[in-house]
Amino acid sequence: MMDSITQKAGIIAAAAFGVVLVSSAGYSSVSAQGLPEGFKKGDLSPAPSAEMIEAGKRVYFTKCVWCHGVDGAGDGPGADRLWPRPRNFNQGTFKIRHTASGELPLFDAKKPIAGQNDLFETVTHGLPGSAMPPWEGILSEEQRLQVLSFVTTELVKDRKFTDKQSETQTILQLAELKPKPATDESKKRGAELIVEKKCVECHGMEGRGDGNAFNLKDDWGFSIQPANWHKCWNFRGSRQDPYNVANIFRTFSTGVNGTPMPSFADNTTVDERWDIANFVSSLCERDPLGNPLPIDPLTDKPKINFVIPSDLVEGEIPAEIEHEAWQKAPKRLVAMGGQITHKPRNFVNRIDDIWVRSLYNDKYIVYLLEWDDRTKSVAEGKLPWAPTQVNIDVKEQDPKTGEEGSIAMKQNNYAVYNDAIAIETAVKWKELPAPIKPRYLFGTNDQYPMDIVKWEADGSLRAFKGTGWDKDFEERDNYEEAMKLVKSEWKNGRWYVMIQRPVGNKKDQDYDEDTFFEVGQYIPTVFFAWDGHNGDAGRKMAVSAFYYTFMNPPVPQETYIYPVVIAVGVVLLEGWVLTRRANRKKGKTL
Amino acid sequence: MKALMSLGALIGVAGLLLLGGMVLDVVPSTYIRLVEGYMPIQMLLEVACYVIGFTGLSYTLNAMGMAIPRFWQGIGFWVFFLLYLKYRMYPPIPFSVRAMYGTVSLVAVFMWVSASEEDWQKFKQPIMNVLDAQTGGNRILRYLYLVLLPILIGGFSFNAMMPKSEEPIELRTVHPAPPASTKVHGKTYTLQTSQNPYRVNPEGKYDQEFSNANIVEQGMGRLMKPNANPWDDKNQGYLKYVREGGEIFFQNCHFCHGDNLNGRGLHAFAFNPIPANFTDPGTIAQLQETFIFWRVSKGGIGLPNEGFPWASVMPPWEQHLTVDEIWKVVLFEYWHTGYYPRTWD
């Protein structure tokens, strides 16, 4: 007995040693049992109880049915206006798993344990970047397990979670694989590997998801896009922990079922996968010190600061982004949502944030806008409307249920218009007592208009006056000559646009239609963005909330004088208190 | 008594450890979940727990002969409160509001330490000791103060005078006073007398009791009542319209107000003011159905100035939906959150 155990242990140890030896040599990543490295065979979970399934039905028809549909085919009333579309459960195809490519995900109705229950984690943390919210705190743990019991038994129709004949579980042992430290060496190797393993073909040279973004389709024929590695908070598998490399390692090892993203377990070693994960994670946006951006737990996106500071430069404002002044200028993330207030509404905006920097001198203020757009879009030929036209005929998405008319079906089939960006600032903002402003969407009326500066990918830079959401823009006399498009470049899935405009003075500008920028004041600023390949034009666009452009004043002399005066005053006060106390004590003792 | 106080002490220590963890960012401030909508009352309860804990702690220490002087108790409590406001409160509150609470709590601490002449003497004593500098330690302390105070105050005023850009605080009225009537699609609705035409029983009669009996259950998850599934094809009246309202909601509204009607939709992160959270007892639960009808029909642009019409992206839904559809959506919102609309009587 004893012997056989030691014998077994010996074999296992030898096998393990062999695996280590082989994998570290880098010849093969397949272990002795024919499994990819880092994986182990697992057992199918027992079926959930009938009570759990019945209770789950109640959860499903209260919360989930609205998007996932009565039969779980991902065709609920909300489905057609969503992109990515809600999951069709019928085929048992699930994206985020610890199991090998093509296999069913881990689910056990009795084990709500992180790392051992993929579906439970998906429901708990949601799928960021899609409409699937985190249900933690809304549904109890029990309720989440119940609804999954219902989904996996009643709505997954083509496969069975308990069928030993057809299903296997090959499980990534993520908990046992120690992450490799993200050293420069590891990241460098990762950078080489993503080219070697052809990741860049889809994800793009800089990983902005701009590679073969066009013709990718999921298993159901719906358009789908590769992930943008610079926005890790939108990774579906980020589990509300976007800067954690383990999540990337997992997705890379198991692939994303139902999408063109394959598993790389068979042709990479664990060590190589960590290098790739480290590199991909290192691309995600960080603050100037290299720390992860703070994530707002209410939105699972980076926290927003609504003030866009503009730094003063002496003399000419540099035109090169690499210039020290631009590198030092504070960078602000402007969050963008779809314009869904007025028709035509934009339910799926492909531009969801813009990075903004600004510099100013005595004559001009310059905005540097950078945003990710997988496609460079320049309209072919002349657009069928004038640049000033607002009420243009772009159709918004029908709400009809049926996959043919859905956004996911139409995506990438739109007529191509121009990519564009606009900075909208309040005119005569000083006359409106804070916090009152002209309306964010093209101003309130003729009395409180908006100053709109719009750049389009055809190279035009125009200035308009907006007097209401449904009013066509008005041209502004000779403002366009005063502006300058310093830079506009699309590179590897990102636009870089630098716009220079006058700070404004009564001699050269028109007080009634141009914004006058003043140092040390909060100038209401709104951003609009159009993705030409998304059929964006007119009001079909992405919008931001109100931000404030704030031109940082130079430090006044008094800042250096008064504190010294105050400190001297405190010294005098101290002397007075001490002498008083001493005198009183003397008086007492006398 | 003693056991009770020890228990209090335990609470105090545990609470302080938790707060310490939050300050040092070891424990996330969302570790103990703030229940949506009950945040203020939960905060008050928590602070009350802390006060009980501190009482127990101070009693126990006293019994052990390690009493904390009144002076340090006062300062300690004030510092605790400031840290609590900064690190525990979520969503975070702006500095100016914290400064206000800080001042109020400072006054409260002073009132507490000066409740009686004897207490006040005890409180002052350490200050006087330092001023008099009778011992070596106190002398060092006094010189430290003499040097550091001017430097610190000078530094603070320098910091305060350095030009800074902080987000301006803009306070908005979330539920402004409604008009007496509103005109939607050519028809005038008097807010006081209008009724939701879809709040009807299977016979088609307006029936608030019937609809109230069929809303989701309050409690975790807010699930539908087992025999009141809006997706049942046999439904007539209220539940049938709830489903129709839900379909409209999930084609139009969830983008901002969220799949769970808690204001955390797909686009919500980009907007300011943030979308309303209907599951919060302070929103639709406090309002009449006709108020919601008015707000939905007229949207952000129809708000009076105190509601910030210029910043709200709430669509005037009369531009997108029919009157019937708006009423159905309102019906659905009450059903899904499990609240009864407020009535006029």
SSE topology:
The complex is a heterodimer of chains A (590) and B (345).
Chain A: H1 2-25, E1 39-42, H2 50-68, H3 118-125, H4 141-155, E2 169-172, H5 184-196, H6 199-203, H7 245-254, H8 270-283, E3 295-296, E4 301-302, E5 307-312, H9 324-328, E6 332-335, E7 337-338, E8 353-360, E9 364-372, H10 407-410, E10 420-426, E11 450-456, E12 461-466, E13 474-475, H11 479-482, E14 484-491, E15 494-502, E16 522-530, E17 542-543, E18 547-551, H12 558-589
Parallel strand pairs in A: 5-8, 5-18
Antiparallel strand pairs in A: 1-2, 3-4, 6-8, 7-17, 8-9, 9-15, 10-11, 10-16, 11-12, 12-13, 14-15, 16-17, 16-18
Chain B: H1 2-23, H2 39-63, H3 70-88, H4 95-113, H5 117-132, H6 136-161, E1 181-184, E2 187-190, H7 208-213, H8 238-252, H9 254-257, H10 289-298, H11 323-337
Antiparallel strand pairs in B: 1-2
Can you put this structure into words, describing what you see?
The complex is a heterodimer of chains A (about 600) and B (about 350). Chain A is α+β, with helices and mostly antiparallel strands and about 600 residues long. Chain A has five domains: about 1-35; about 35-170, Cytochrome Bc1 Complex, Chain D, domain 2; about 185-285, Cytochrome Bc1 Complex, Chain D, domain 2, CATH 1.10.760.10; about 305-380 and about 410-550, Immunoglobulin-like, CATH 2.60.40; about 560-585. Chain A is about 25% helix and about 15% strand. Chain A is built from twelve helices and 18 strands. In chain A, strands 5, 6, 7, 8, 9, 10, 11, 12, 13, 14, 15, 16, 17 and 18 form a 14-stranded mixed beta sheet that branches. Chain A is globular and about 85 Å long. Chain B is mainly α and about 350 residues long. Chain B has three domains: about 1-115, no CATH class; about 120-160, no CATH class; about 180-335, Orthogonal Bundle (Cytochrome Bc1 Complex, Chain D, domain 2), CATH 1.10.760.10. Helices cover about 50% and strands about 0% of the residues of chain B. Chain B has eleven helices and two strands. Chain B has helices spanning about 1-25, 40-65, 70-90, 95-115, 115-130, 135-160, 210-215, 240-250, 255, 290-300, 325-335, and strands at about 180-185, 185-190. A two-stranded antiparallel ribbon of chain B has the order 1-2. In chain B, strand 1 (about 180-185) and strand 2 form a beta hairpin. In chain B, helix 3 (about 70-90) runs antiparallel to helix 4 (about 95-115). The mean pLDDT of chain B is about 90. Chains A and B meet through helix 2, strand 7 and helix 12 of A and helix 5, helix 6, helix 8 and helix 9 of B.
